[in-house]
């Protein structure tokens, strides 16, 4: 395997006392010799996991929570030590900078997010964030200066609607800022809590051309790479995501005294609706997905017929028009269910939706050839998960690198990726950035 060619990071950090270190003066170190410290990546994954654990021992580093704030402070401290001089922009994104040889060039940026879903796992977002820092430290330890300035970006609130990256590309509305985040604060108040400035949100906007290229390393979150025994996924596109709050209104009445044919049972109608969503989504070929992942029943008692049900509907696909088409079909089915059950079903489309995005073809090729030159197998694939990269793609050539998720599990405490796969991904990220730097 070609990775054997790498000089171990430790041999170089110890001021040239390693086998290869003594042979190479710093200015002769070729980028191909650089390699990340896989152990350091894994130990930091575990360290970050300690922030945001709730009283039940579950991972709860949800955006804008105490755990998120503490985890961000820990991360910024490491960024400071790495000389990145981190700052927080108006949307709460953490940005660290490293100078290049040529200050007139636009920065190459990379990073991810460190917030998580409730009861989430330790790898989603954190891998790309910790690997970005690792890349900087590897360059520091080898006194390697790139031509372009480099930026590490840790986006705020990825899991609650990719808020930080949307704001950075000017895609956040007042409605979006007023929407409630997962912990109940409005996005605006949450952004304030993490050190941003929602009143001046526009100040974080980056325009087309401001960033030379953006690359995000991430766990796959599905099971394709593991099943096909592929080490590196090259992402060709990221799905769009649209959410609707669905309200089913019936009539709450006595569950003993109301005859079956006299009922307006909102939960019964909601159940039929959930089945209909599944039927509509699977009625046509393709990789589209649709989920009802949230339900609240009122009043919620054994002896009362449910009067009102609130559901959360989500549809994802790489093709925005297909999402609209599927939703129209779901609306039709809902109208029929409402008529037959004497209920009312209404939809409220949520702000902060994500458009589908294709990654940059040139960057895909660089990642693919870089991974292959390091001896890794690769596969071109789409991302069913949403990512900040899909918004950054509006203003800069963007790309994503995936590594396998064991068992294809994500958004779960069982989420896991091996230290070897994480180091492989980080080395592909490092060498990809160095190749982009040469272009
Ligand atoms: C984010 O991880 C999402 O896909 O919802
Ligand atoms: Mn993520
Ligand atoms: Mn996620």
The residue ranges in which pLDDT falls below 50 over 5 or more consecutive positions are 1-29
Please name the fourth-level CATH homologous superfamily of the largest domain.
Answer: Zn peptidases
Small-molecule components bound = glyoxylic acid, manganese (II) ion
In the CATH hierarchy, the third-tier topology of the largest domain is known as Aminopeptidase
**What is the share of helical residues?**
25-40%
> How many beta-strand elements?
13
Number of domains: 2
Number of helical regions = 13
Q: Which structural class do the helices and strands define?
A: alpha/beta
Bulk shape: elongated
- Nearest-angstrom radius of gyration? 24 Å
Mind explaining what this structure looks like?
The protein is of the alpha/beta class and 439 residues long. Helices cover 33% and strands 19% of the residues. Residues 1-29 have low confidence and may be disordered. Helix 2 crosses helix 4 (126-141) and helix 2 crosses helix 13 (419-438). One manganese (II) ion binds at residues 117, 124, 159, 385, 411.
Which characteristics define this entry?
single chain; 439 residues; alpha/beta; Aminopeptidase; Alpha-Beta Plaits; 2 domains; nine-stranded mixed beta sheet; four-stranded antiparallel beta sheet; 13 helices; 13 strands; 33% helix; 19% strand; binds glyoxylic acid; binds manganese (II) ion
